[in-house]
Amino acid sequence: MTVLRRVRAFLGQLLLLAVLAGLTAFLVTGPARLANGRTDDGLRGDLRKLAATNRDLTFSGFHVNGEVSAAIEAGRLEEIQQQLPAPLPGLIGGAWYIAESGQNSIVPAGAATQSCPNLAVLRYEPATTEAFRIVGGRAAASRSTTEVVIGQDAAQMLGLEVGDGLEMGARYGSAPLRVVGVFAPVNPDDPIWSDQMPHRAECPSPLDGLRQQAVLLTDQAGARLAGNRMNDLTDRWRYRLDENRITADQVDGMTRAVATIRRTPPDRTSIQSSVDSTLADFDRQVGAVRALLAVVQAGILATAAGLILLAARLMTDRRRAEFALLRARGGTVGAVAGRTLLEVLVVVPIAVAAGWIGGTLAPGRADDTEPLLLAAVAVIALLAAPISAALVARRPSFSGHRSDVVALRPSLRRITAEGLLVLLAAGGIYLVRLRGLDAGAGVDPYLVAAPVLLALAASVVALRGVPFPLRWAGDLAARARGAIAFLGLSGAGRAPLHSGPLAVLVVAIATGLFTGTVTSTVGTARDRAANLAVPADAVVRGFYFSPETAPRIAALPHVTKVVPMLLASGATIHGDTAAAILQGQVMVVDASSAGLDLPAALTGARRSDGPAPAVVSPHLAAQVGTAGTAGTAEVMGRTYRFTVAQVSEVTPGLPAGTTDFIVLPQQALAVPDYQPIQPNRILIDGHGFDAGQVRAIADAGQREQLQRTTGKTVTDAQLAVPATVVTWDSYRESLEQRGVDGALSFTFVTGMVAAAVLSLMAVALAVLTGAPARGRTLSRLRTMGLSPGQGRRLLVFELVPLIAVAVIAGGLAGFALPLLIGPALGLSGFTAGVAAGVSLDPWFAGGVLALAVLAVVAALAVENVANRRLRLGTVLRLGEEQS
What we know:
By secondary structure, the chain is of the alpha+beta class. Helices cover about 50% and strands about 15% of the residues. Strands 3-4-10-6-8-7 form a six-stranded mixed beta barrel. Strand 9 and strand 10 (about 210-220) form a beta hairpin. Helix 13 crosses helix 14, helix 24 (about 740-785) crosses helix 26 and helix 25 (about 790-825) packs antiparallel against helix 26. It starts with a helix and ends in a 13-residue tail after the last helix. Its main location: membrane.
């Protein structure tokens, strides 16, 4: 009961400690779970976008001596699944046995051989019989002829009906087929159909246009019959990975498992899948997000832990007289600490549990480190106050102690500790640059703490440097009229008294500005990536457009400029000094009117009989030659001479990462009228135009061009590459919608918001810590005529230097961190290959200044509340002192 009475007496101080402990416990659990949930959702979204052939694990059987499948191996489905290494067996969401032919030509029975026949795969898949319903004809029941059923969409594309006969031709034979039924899927979204969608493909000769590809389903007897006749039937066992069971922490294990079965597949099979490549790419992005989140989380948790220590110090400072009385009555230091621990045990465990429960309500997956961090929070929250009480109780006499003077002459022990802190920070940053945050065995705690150590080192340097300019300013203020500035600056000059709040404030500001700098850096790099890929307000892409297409688009409302452009991949390039034949991407554009960021040698080039100037990529220039070197490039079957005018790593119109490219100014090329350059890109400037109209005109231009080339009438359905319109805004938005971008954005927002809130709390605790001393000073000054407004000015003069030093030190540390550890964060993985660099949005710098102003306002409000509780002006009487 005695403990409960003491808890009730000091409930306000204990509640502050408990609230901070609960908040820290929530920060340990909630944000991490949300970030993991966003990451898992991103992984599942990436897997859903994959084609079935890339996403599924498909094992193909092979037979000795040319033997074909007997279509009787469905029983091996469970056997193969159990042989898969962990964690794959538990992640399989569906499994199907398939016996199918290769992709073979099909022609109507009795028809002549075609130059570009349609293609089909003959398949026996037992599970499909329950996944479709017959809508025309009947199910297959093969005897002497292979009977097939076909989906509605495929039948419409191929022009087939019930009763039609087909001839399927393979490499070693052919087989007659008969369509006996048309079916519709019971559930079109069932994954069993994901690898059976009909589609169009180009013919070997462009003059033949397109052809259709589909899957024909048959029964077991029909598959065996056709397989024997064509000598072409193979067993497959297809396993569907259920994305809803997969989480990001399983990616590494899944990648290793797929690599294992790729090396040693189940007996007499080979694997077909590229899911391990997708998982490896995603794992690299997750690693970068994990590193960034770890840095931000370390800064936030360090700030929160610092606030807990400040709250414990505040509670023990307010009870100095009580502890002195206990020691005077014979109480030991341990007794004082134990007494405080019992009080803390009443409220802190409940607060930590409440914070943890609140964090678990957040949707997402817990980190493996969550129990350890939660235990660390509980230990700090429980022991901070007892340890602080023990330190206070060791010196029971509190009179005659000039901490301001002593602090200006720090002890050798303190100087050594601060020097060690600076060395640890420098060593940690060096190791992060050398090894990265993840050295192969998970995130290293010391390396993750290095940015926090850097911020603490910055606060130490600031702490040692700030008293001297403040003393100089105080001397100037002493010569001026009025004592407010002098008294405030004198209080601020005793900087070591504010070492705790200053360190916490510097860490919070450094964390927030680091997060803001990374946000700005990624955003700026993505803008550059968008400028490269879409060097106009929009770009139209297609196969080839007729010369009339660009003028028609230019005539549309809200279109201000249109520039046609050719982008030819795999073009042949010769250098006069290189014997090898090179290949690369050739971009041909009217550089004088395109408005692209190209050198003056290209924009000012004019048509002549000599070689045209060109921009060449470094990799290609290393083989062709440097500036001034001549060469030739083949464009649409015609060779044009060029000289290297400039070597550039990137060029507008080509995405970052393109290694071999050359840019030629079309206005400088001697292009004959009988062999014009046909554009396959059209750059559009303008806002508010109708993208649908642009697409329709572009497709019409493609049809016209194909009709002139082939002499045949072409429909939209026969276009090999239907026109697409990509705006700058849509491309820029797509860069923020990849797998891990949800977690990345959440990390940015959480880091900045938490840093801002914790910064304000640090200022509030700094005010509360010094409130009793300032209260005694104000009470004495009130008897001398000090007004309430002058009292607030006194607080401003005392706090503004502290906040200004924290903003400068924390701001420099936060901005320097991306420069120092940027390579370890792997930010280029989020910027479409563009070098990230470091940039700071002026809005973030303005936000830090606004936060400083808000901190001063909050400090004045907290001081006003504290003064009311202390009853200044009424409690103090001449000769008395508040306690």
